[in-house]
Design a protein that fits this description.
By secondary structure, the protein is mainly beta. The chain is 0% helix and 50% strand. Strands 2, 4, 5, 6, 9, 10 and 11 form a 7-stranded mixed β-sheet that branches. A 4-stranded antiparallel β-sheet has the order 1-3-8-7, with no helix packed on it. The model has no long low-confidence stretch (mean pLDDT 96).
Length: 124
Amino acid sequence: QVLLVESGGGLVQAGGSRRLSCTASGGAFSRYAMGWFRQAPGKERDFVAAIRTNGWYTYYANSVKGRFTISRDNTKNTLYLQMNSLKPEDTAVYYCAAGLNPGDVINIVAYDYWGQGSQVTVSS
């Protein structure tokens, strides 16, 4: 069982930056591929970014490519999402997820564990 706890959400103005963190406990963090997803009110949970176990391979949704950066520190059991040039349409609850063998890292069903979510609100 892996417990994931997100932090770093809050209110930010359009054009600003925010860094989300996701701290894992209860499992071998370095063995899991990690992902960030987000869910806006009334919408489905969508893929944002993912990173493989060693951090060498990263994947991004087109909507955030060039603005968001996913990274991980396996020594600290922590996943990060650096969000720059934020837009009002980035407003959502952001979830981190862990998958032991997620062949398709952009697929929501590929992940085994989820955090409770962190609200990010971008004001215009």
